[in-house]
Amino acid sequence: MLDRRISRRRALLSVGIFGAATLLAACSSSAPASPTTAPAPTPMKPTGSAATAVPTSGTQAGNTPTVAAAPAAAPVPRATTAPVAQTGQVKQVPRNKTWISVGVGGEAPQQFSDVQLQNPFLPGISRSGYQIVMEPLFYYNPYHTNTVCAPVGLPCKDGETAWIGTSYEFNPDFTQVVVKLRNGVEWNDGQPFTAKDVVFTVNMLKDNPTLSWGTDMKQWVKDITALDDHTVQFTLNNPNPRFIFSYFTFHEDVGIQIVPEHIFKGQDPMKFTNYDLDKGWPVVTGPYKLVHSDPQQKIWDRNDNWWGKKIGFAPLPAPERLVFLPGYDEAKQVEMIINNEVDCTLSMQLGNIQAALTKNPKISSWSGNKPPYGYVDWWPTGLGFNDSKPPFNDPDIRWAINHALNRDQIVQIGYHGAGEKTIFPYPDFPALKPFMDGLSDLVQKYPIDSFDLNKTAQIMQSKGYAKDQGGFWAKDGKRLSIVVITFAVEQDVTPVIVEQLRKGGFDASFKMPNNFGTLINTGEADAYVFGHGGSVRDPYFTMRLYQSQFSAPTGQPAVRPYRWKNDKFDKLVDQMGETSPTDPKLEQLFHQAMEIWIPDLPDIPLVQFYHRNPVNTTYWTNWPDENNPYINSANWHRTCELLLLGLKPATG
User: How far apart are CA 301 and CA 288, in angstroms?
Assistant: First the structure.
């Protein structure tokens, strides 16, 4: 099932969702008019775990996104001074030593709904702190350069930073891997972190496959053993050279948290919330400790006895307090960051981040105060179909639709020119570029980025279609209608896509239904604008998204939405999965898989997706950006601990 857990609300673009369509219609006078369809209550963008290639359950396998109605505007608690719990048990911390984030979590209108939930494997937990304190064995930075891939002073090689783990080594056939753990790592109650905690966590997940990641561990792990306190041995059911990277290396939304055996042992993992401040729960290894949680705010204070500082591995992060405020109306979040009340927000619509940058010179973005005002996420946007349903099961029809789409115009109008197009379902990350460059011969043979309405017409006519009196393609008196569904995060580009389809003769319209996730999950949606959460380091994960094993008949829930099947492709991707990312053979297998994928075009990649999350430098500087990409600037990703370790107090 599809999992991009909904956790933030999106406002309309400055031109408006129908304004973009109007602009395009003005540029394309011959386009049939778009129907005026009022959108359903605005859904919110998922920032939880996106479906990756290997995981098949839990937060990574993907559950249908829960699409929530947009909350109404309401008074917002001011954060000009660090919020303090009303119990009086939380110490005062000056604002200039407090890092305040708004928008991470909060499914109820402007409130946290997981006030007493700190079990990372139960559904409903938000990213309001736990992504910082539940540390991984390893970190990976897909934005790394040859010289920058972690905060200054921390070890890093090829984008990977050893954290609780120090190294791992596979046997020759990738069916066994031994992980070495760092000596001196402690839980914040003083208990040592050992291999037994890793063994306990994995076995708990294997024994409870309905927990997040449970099915994955049951699928892959044949046995796990603590060889000593600082050595873990995994024996796998099948070869998997990406096993550690897939599950125990935090990057983007990906990674399994390790929990303390001495806290979880004897508990019912399906019910245990891991929350009791009087008992010191949650017990974590990270540099902060939860001191207050209520529907309006969550407060984490720095643990000055953090193991990283004690053993000289890393300095304490500069912020002494973290305050998480729930999601508010995006316009209110703009107001708060302009007024220096918060230090960072979730990703914003283009018009809103431009307004924030204009109003306060202390506000910046990944690209400073210039386009694209954000960084490329691992979630490139495409137009997908139920590939098992006529006429979208015909690759020729999909190519006809592809030729009706002008990617440059989608960027120009939908992104106001602040973005990039793509012809592959891959993010524009450095490690992936050599693989994409190796497809130049296929691109020449199959020109994906060919906007050509004559080619559209040729294909449609060859399939027996002709334009009716309204200018739309029809056969046997029936129009080829395309209802494109989407949700708020894609509302900037979707109206442009639909208008282009109409100009190409397709009777297209779009909707933003509350049950968006369910409709694409069950195949009831014919077409949808959605993203791909797959590869960040090598091409295997994204290819796996399209394997037929994740398909299902229309009406039944599927792990992936495409419902495209090709046995030869499946076998090639399986071979990719058993091939090391550093093996030259991988590029050959990828090329062969794309020789099948491109002619069939299971879905149509269109544009890169950007996180445009503003940051405020009034109190904190050295935010990661395109010139210093020690990690991305997301405050909800599992890599946020690296962001906090990189921040410096503002001076003057």
Answer: 5
Is the Cβ–Cβ distance between 484 and 509 less than 8 Å?
A: yes
Which element (helix H / strand E) includes 605?
strand 604-607
Domain count of the fold of the chain: 2
pLDDT exceeds 70 at position 31: no
Mean pLDDT of the chain: 87
**Residues 85 and 292 sit within 8 Å (Cβ to Cβ):** yes
Same domain, residue pair 390 and 347? no
What span, in angstroms and rounded, lies between the C-alpha atoms of 70 and 74? 12
The residue assigned the tokens 């306990």 is 200
Whether 298 and 440 map to the same domain: the answer is no
Domain CATH number, residue 311: 3.40.190.10
pLDDT in tens, 344-355: 999 999 999 999
Residues 6+ apart with CB under 8 A from 509: 34, 35, 37, 481, 482, 483, 484, 498
pLDDT tens digits, 282-337: 999 999 999 999 999 999 999 999 999 999 999 999 999 999 999 888 899 999 99
Judge whether 60 lies within some domain. Answer: no
pLDDT at 66 over 60: no
**Residue 83 domain-assigned (yes or no):** no
Question: What is the rounded CA–CA span in Å between residue 273 and residue 292?
Answer: 15
Count of CB atoms situated within 10 Å of the CB of 276: 12
Same domain, 602 and 587: yes
**Tokens encoding 101:** 């984030």
Shared domain for 350 and 437, answered yes or no, is no
- Answer yes or no: is pLDDT of 457 > 70: yes
β-pairing verdict for 507-511 and 481-485? parallel
- Using DSSP's 3-state secondary structure scheme, residue 58 falls into helix
Q: Tens digits of per-residue pLDDT, 136-177? A: 999 999 999 988 999 999 989 999 999 999 999 999 999 999
**Six token digits for residue 24:** 């395009």
Nearest to 562 by CA among 601, 620, 507: 601
Concatenated DSSP letters of 108-126:
BTTB-S-TT---TTSTT--
CA-closest candidate to residue 373, choices 421, 318, 422, 419 = 419
Read off the tokens for 349: 């619509």
Q: Residue 122 is part of which domain span?
A: 95-135+275-375+612-647
Residue count of the chain: 652
Strand partners, 41: none
- Domain co-membership, 390 together with 504: yes
Evaluate the omega torsion of the peptide bond into residue 46 and state whether it is cis, within 30 degrees of 0.
Answer: no
For tokens 């990661």, the residue is 624
On whether the CB atoms of residues 176 and 170 are closer than 8 A, the answer is yes
Beta carbons of 381 and 529 less than 8 angstroms apart: yes
Record the tokens describing residue 386, joined without a space.
Answer: 């139920």
Question: Any idea what DSSP says for residue 513?
Answer: -
What distance in Å separates the CA atoms of residue 413 and residue 163, rounded to the nearest whole number? Answer: 43
Instruction: Give the whole-angstrom CA distance, residue 581 versus residue 576.
Output: 9
What is the rounded CA–CA span in Å between residue 42 and residue 528?
Answer: 16
Section 428-448 average pLDDT:
97
